[in-house]
């Protein structure tokens, strides 16, 4: 086995000249009932309340936004957090010092984190958006950093997302003018409606919520023909770029595997669920298809809401047992404590873990997902209570749609590599360790995936691969930019085929030590050229 190392050393200086820039920050009030009153005058807000100390603190600033948001608000701080945009950074300090009877905490937002876009139907965590849609907590999209992806693209009508599921009503406000039924399906209790909304429901229309790839088109079909997947192949031949399958069965068919290869060659990516049976029953030994076919992005569920387990310790009143629920990056929904000792890290209840196995590629948030079918069919705002995987897959599907929307020439066989390379490693999360090797590369990060595509082809800076440890899978990546690999491991059976136009930098804490079944091939090819142009939401982004 031969490992080829190519080093490109680059020395550069970056000069930035900023004029006076507006400042963004979060501000936490002491009381949930506090809501300051403002009126708009020209482009700015004027405080109209009666608190003299607050009025004095605000007097010397121009305030563009001062609104409540649930973004980054912990359990006890919901409805106490404000998002503020003003002309001077000193405002936050001024408020904390001179209006300390009202505010207890503030946090500046870094310049890089200002590169976001939010539509006007982004729910309760909205900051720069108007929040005219469903009043629902969309913090799962925040954890995936979807607004950072929307900064670059919100999707394209030219990119078609396939939904193989229950029926999708083409005259619904979230799908009208952008959807088409290729094969009719039955209602399935609105299953297909919710899946389609999550992946590509229309955004910025003041209704419902924005799907991940909300400006993408939708082709809907049914979910039969498990042996040939003919309905999926049909979508692929019609130009569909990514197909969502929130269904599966346990039978393997070689004809279906060949259909997956055919679709991948056509430029179509298939995303499917590992399914909902609990790990308590499957023990990591049950495989569902099409998720477990080679070339399919197989998806399971993880939790997202509370950053630390002690933020959401609950008690079973009848037994007096403490437990936790929906803790970020845990692959189960609930967990308990040995000897009921809450000072110790909890262990996950296997019954609360959806099906995991060695074929799973990625996990994403699952509990608390908006169920659009309830609004469309019953005029009811509702979110998922448990962690079924059906709602997880369209988060991945929408992410893939954004990647293709940004760079339509993106090779389909590199999509899965980008999804994995940009995921959040969750191997060191203590409760996950008994399930290592069965939850894929980690937690989906839509923002990083789309940004990697931008960095690969924008010609503005380097592409960075970092903070992951891989001992399996085949990774393929071709970038016009320089690629920097740092704090990254490719060992054992991992295979990396990386080509860069400008160079490859092997940086600190990088381990490239494949075993007998692995391989590292790094190549610099100055002849690489763009096959098409980036399709940006705002072309001026290239000037940032």
UniProtKB/TrEMBL annotation:
Instruction: Spell out where the chain crosses the membrane.
Output: none
Give all residue intervals belonging to the Peptidase S8/S53 domain.
188-427
Extract the InterPro entries matched here: Peptidase_S8/S53_dom, Peptidase_S8/S53_dom_sf
- Tell me the keywords, alphabetical order: Hydrolase, Protease, Serine protease, Signal
Task: For this entry, list what GO says about its biological process.
Answer: protein processing
Q: Which Pfam families match?
A: Peptidase_S8
Which domain of life, per UniProt?
A: Bacteria
Might you report a single GO cellular component term? membrane
GO MF terms here are: serine-type endopeptidase activity
Question: From which residue to which does the signal peptide run?
Answer: 1-19
What are the positions of the active site? Answer: 165 (charge relay system), 191 (charge relay system), 390 (charge relay system)
Similarity annotation: Belongs to the peptidase S8 family.
Q: What is this protein called?
A: S8 family serine peptidase
């Amino acid at each position: 086995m031969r490992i080829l190392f190519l080093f490109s050393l680059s020395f550069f200086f970056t000069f930035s000249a900023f004029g006076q820039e507006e400042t963004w920050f979060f501000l936490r009030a002491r009381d949930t009932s506090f809501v300051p009153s403002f009126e708009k005058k020209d482009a700015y807000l004027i405080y109209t309340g009666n608190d003299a100390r607050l009025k004095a603190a605000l007097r010397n600033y121009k305030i563009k936004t001062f609104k409540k948001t649930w973004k980054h608000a912990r359990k006890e701080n919901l409805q106490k957090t404000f998002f503020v945009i003003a002309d001077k950074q000193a405002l936050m300090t001024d408020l904390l010092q001179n209006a300390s009877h009202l505010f207890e905490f503030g946090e500046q937002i870094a310049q890089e984190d200002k590169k976001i876009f939010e539509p006007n139907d982004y729910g309760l965590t909205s900051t720069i958006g108007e929040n005219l849609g469903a009043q629902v907590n969309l913090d799962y999209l925040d954890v995936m950093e979807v607004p950072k992806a929307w900064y670059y693209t919100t999707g394209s009508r030219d990119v078609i997302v396939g939904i193989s599921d229950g029926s999708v009503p083409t005259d619904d406000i979230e799908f009208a003018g952008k959807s088409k039924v290729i094969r009719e399906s039955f209602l399935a209790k609105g299953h297909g409606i919710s899946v389609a909304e999550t992946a590509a429901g229309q955004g910025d229309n003041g209704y419902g919520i924005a799907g991940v790839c909300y400006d993408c088109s939708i082709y809907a079909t049914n979910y039969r023909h498990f042996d040939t997947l003919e309905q999926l192949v049909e979508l692929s031949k019609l130009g569909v770029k990514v197909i969502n399958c929130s269904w599966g069965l346990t039978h393997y068919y070689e004809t279906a595997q060949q259909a997956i290869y055919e679709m991948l060659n056509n430029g179509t990516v298939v995303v499917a669920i590992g399914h909902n049976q609990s790990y308590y029953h499957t023990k990591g030994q049950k495989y569902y298809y099409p998720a477990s076919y080679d070339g399919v992005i197989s998806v399971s569920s993880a939790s997202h809401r509370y950053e630390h387990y002690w933020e959401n310790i609950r008690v079973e009143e009848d037994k007096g047992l403490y437990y936790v629920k929906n803790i970020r990056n845990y692959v189960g929904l609930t967990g308990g404590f040995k000897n009921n000792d809450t000072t110790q890290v909890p262990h996950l209840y296997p019954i609360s873990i959806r099906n995991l196995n060695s074929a799973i590629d990625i996990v994403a948030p699952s509990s608390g997902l908006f169920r659009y079918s309830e609004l469309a069919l019953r005029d009811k705002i509702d979110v998922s209570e448990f962690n079924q995987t059906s709602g997880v897959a369209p988060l991945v599907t929408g992410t893939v749609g954004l990647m293709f929307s940004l760079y339509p020439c993106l090779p389909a066989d590199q999509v899965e590599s980008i999804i994995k390379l940009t995921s959040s490693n969750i191997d060191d999360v203590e409760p996950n360790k008994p399930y290592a090797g069965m939850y894929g590369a980690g937690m989906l990060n839509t923002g990083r995936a789309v940004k990697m595509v931008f960095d690969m082809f924008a010609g503005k800076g380097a592409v960075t691969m970092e903070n992951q440890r891989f001992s399996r899978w085949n990774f393929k990546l071709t970038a016009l930019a320089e690629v920097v690999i740092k704090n990254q491991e490719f060992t054992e059976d991992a295979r990396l085929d990386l080509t860069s136009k400008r160079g490859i930098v092997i940086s600190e804490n990088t381990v490239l030590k494949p075993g007998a079944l692995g391989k590292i091939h790094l190549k610099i090819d100055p002849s690489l050229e763009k096959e098409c142009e980036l399709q940006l939401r705002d072309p001026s982004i290239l000037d940032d």
